[in-house]
């Protein structure tokens, strides 16, 4: 039988033995807990980084990923993003299926940047960005096609009673999403500056004349917009342009024929000066769509000896870096220089560089599958290539991808100082 002293001595020894074990287990558990917390934290941070990088959500992701460099991927499970027949406001100029085109695979191609993934187009998210705002496309019929594309991309998410289309002064067309108090507009101004081709219907004139220093007549309709998307290119593609210093209404104006590149440069200068003086730098986001390619000569992408163009083409060009003769890099450089100069003045214009990606899509033009505004002759009917439209683009199609790029860039824009360059 133990005496109280012996029991106390044994108890003390037991405590001395067990205490280091408890201390060891406590430290080990604490260490494991810290490791688990750090590992979980790392996984969360990595997940956020990957998601933001892939979806172009981080503020510097455009520096990390050139969304204009990529390839077309056939994706008939996710594309097209809308149906031609179901778009209420589809234009007959680009409704290729309606006018008899049977091969519809041109609708199933998705643009895939090399270095990242584009965010999935979300009409509701875009409408939230545009809530209480104006998005205005300014330019020629190619820009009008991109505008139609944007309207088709979002209008199915809006109830019929909450959307409308309004035509103003002939040149301005306005789609309105009433619940969001948002408008998506198109303004016809094919040369940006004033010209005798400013009528949106009657503009096919043999003698094109441009008031090279005049833009106010057009600009007053769009200067206060929240997002502006410009384009002008094909209308300048002639050896010389007749320029006017003066008014169309007066007989004392000065006319001069000026070479194409110089004329284009002068028009961009007029456009730039107007933006520099009149645009609200705390409100307006500015974009310029680069050259939209044409596919007028089959021998540019094919070794076939027979003449041809985009007519009967059914597959994209797969040759990496293909560049056709219809896209003039000299004009691209003039545009880049104008944008760079505006940047030096503290005004940011973001180029929507759609040229290379669109070069590959020789099969995506309307060709003969569009509304013909004038009756075709028997000679034309016997030679379809003679009236094939290889300038515009079928919808759904390539302009939807342009708008997906625009959408990705709009997601990245800061909410303040949209047109001010960072200091």
Automatic annotation (TrEMBL):
It is a single-pass membrane protein. Residues 64-117 form the Trichome birefringence-like N-terminal domain. Its main location: membrane. The chain crosses the membrane at residues 30-50. Keywords: Membrane, Signal-anchor, Transmembrane, Transmembrane helix. Pfam families: PC-Esterase, PMR5N. One of its GO terms (cellular component) is Golgi apparatus. Residues 118-408 form the Trichome birefringence-like C-terminal domain. It is found in: Membrane. It comes from the Eukaryota. One of its GO terms (molecular function) is O-acetyltransferase activity. Belongs to the PC-esterase family. TBL subfamily. PANTHER family: PROTEIN TRICHOME BIREFRINGENCE-LIKE 34, PROTEIN TRICHOME BIREFRINGENCE-LIKE 9-RELATED. This is Trichome birefringence-like N-terminal domain-containing protein.
């Amino acid at each position: 039988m133990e005496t109280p002293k012996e029991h106390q001595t044994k108890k003390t020894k037991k405590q001395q033995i067990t205490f280091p074990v408890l201390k060891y287990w406590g430290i080990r558990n604490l260490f494991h807990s810290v490791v688990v917390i750090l590992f979980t934290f790392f996984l969360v941070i990595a997940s956020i980084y990957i998601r933001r990088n892939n979806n172009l959500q981080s503020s510097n992701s455009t520096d990390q990923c050139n969304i204009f460099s990529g390839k077309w991927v056939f994706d008939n499970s996710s594309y097209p993003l809308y149906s031609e027949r179901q778009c209420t406001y589809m234009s007959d100029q680009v409704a290729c299926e309606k006018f008899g085109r049977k091969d519809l695979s041109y609708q199933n191609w998705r643009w895939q940047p090399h270095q990242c993934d584009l965010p999935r187009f979300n009409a509701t998210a875009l409408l939230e960005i545009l809530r209480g705002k104006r998005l205005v496309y300014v330019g020629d019929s190619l820009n009008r096609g991109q505008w139609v594309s944007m309207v088709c991309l979002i209008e199915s998410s809006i109830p019929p009673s909450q959307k409308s289309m309004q035509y103003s002064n002939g040149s301005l067309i306005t789609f309105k999403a009433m619940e969001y108090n948002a408008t998506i507009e198109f303004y016809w101004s094919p040369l940006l500056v004033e010209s005798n081709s400013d009528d949106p219907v009657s503009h096919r004139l043999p003698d094109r004349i441009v008031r090279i220093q005049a833009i106010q007549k057009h600009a007053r309709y769009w200067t206060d917009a929240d997002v502006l998307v410009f384009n002008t290119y094909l209308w300048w593609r002639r050896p010389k342009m007749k320029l006017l210093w003066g008014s169309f209404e007066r007989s004392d104006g000065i006319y001069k024929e000026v070479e194409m590149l110089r004329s284009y440069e002068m028009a961009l200068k007029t456009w730039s000066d107007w933006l520099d003086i009149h645009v609200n730098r705390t409100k307006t986001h500015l974009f310029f769509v680069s050259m939209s390619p044409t596919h007028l000569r089959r021998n540019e992408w094919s070794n076939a000896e027979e003449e041809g163009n985009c007519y009967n083409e059914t597959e994209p060009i797969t040759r990496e870096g293909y560049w056709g003769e219809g896209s003039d890099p000299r004009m691209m450089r003039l545009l880049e220089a104008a944008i760079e100069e505006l940047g030096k003045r503290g005004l940011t214009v973001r180029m929507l560089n759609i040229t290379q990606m669109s070069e590959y899509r020789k099969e995506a033009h309307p060709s003969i599958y569009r509304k013909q505004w004038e009756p075709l002759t028997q000679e034309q009917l016997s030679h379809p290539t003679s009236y094939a439209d290889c300038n515009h683009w079928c919808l759904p199609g390539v302009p939807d991808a342009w708008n997906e790029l625009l959408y990705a860039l709009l997601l990245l824009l800061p909410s303040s100082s949209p047109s001010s360059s960072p200091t």
